[in-house]
Amino acid sequence: MKIRDMLEKGEPTVSFEIFPPKSSYSLETVFDTLTELKGLHPDFISVTYGAGGTAQSNTVEIASRIKKDFGIESIAHLTGCTSTKEGMKRTLASIKDSGIENILALRGDIPQEKLADKNWKPEYRYASELIDDIKAAGDFSIGAACYPEGHVDSINKVDDLKNLKKKMDHGADFMITQLFYDNDLFYQFKEKLDLVGIEQPVIAGILPVLNIKQVKRIQEISGCNLPPKFLRILERYEHDPASLQEAGIAYAVDQIIDLLSSGVDGVHIYTMNKPDATRRIMENISCVRKAVCRKEPQR
Predict the structure, then answer these.
(1) Structural domain count of the chain
(2) CB 233 within 8 A of CB 206
């Protein structure tokens, strides 16, 4: 089923992200994780493309098996920055042959070695160019990334919104946000989308914080705002890993309940391949999830 069709029903989706292992030898660990996640009844599961566009074949294989073996709709991430047009054509054909109907189109992070090469020129400079080729390859439901606090590479937030509008105008059906920890910033972002005429659904990306190292990494990559409530949690439990994990899960639950209660189009949980934390979040939001949906999640 196409994600655009799910979203047209008017009920908030709850979905997960997983990532492929670095080695194909450990693929079975991902399927063990998926076995646990299946019992949580997500509407769909996304599979990342790997750092710098690596693990391409694993992404397609895992996304295909999520749908065929686990009976859950899947969405494969595709990054364009390190891909060639010809290589992307083959990848899209493989995705289509695998029965995958949904693709998240991303420019991707450019590897340092490419940035250092003055002769290197990407064949896909923007995600909108990748979206054009995805649309030409078949009837996929296409998602795009969006950034409530602005993309780190953008000149400013106005420029970032222009780039997002371009992606949507080129044919993206919906958006999934980068992680954020301040829901007010998300709501302000939604108001800005209305002002520039972006009407497609926005799925909120939530990453539960489970350790201090993760927080530092998040700040390095995204530079996202950490609100006072969040900072108080870090300060109190910085040297107590078990309590920090508990507090991180509770914070994510509070975020999701607020989003669902406010009519969000969907929530996308970045699981980091950790089903236990995801299970606890789902248990704690189950009542609200049922309340805002007209029917039970599919089993």
Answers:
(1) 1
(2) no
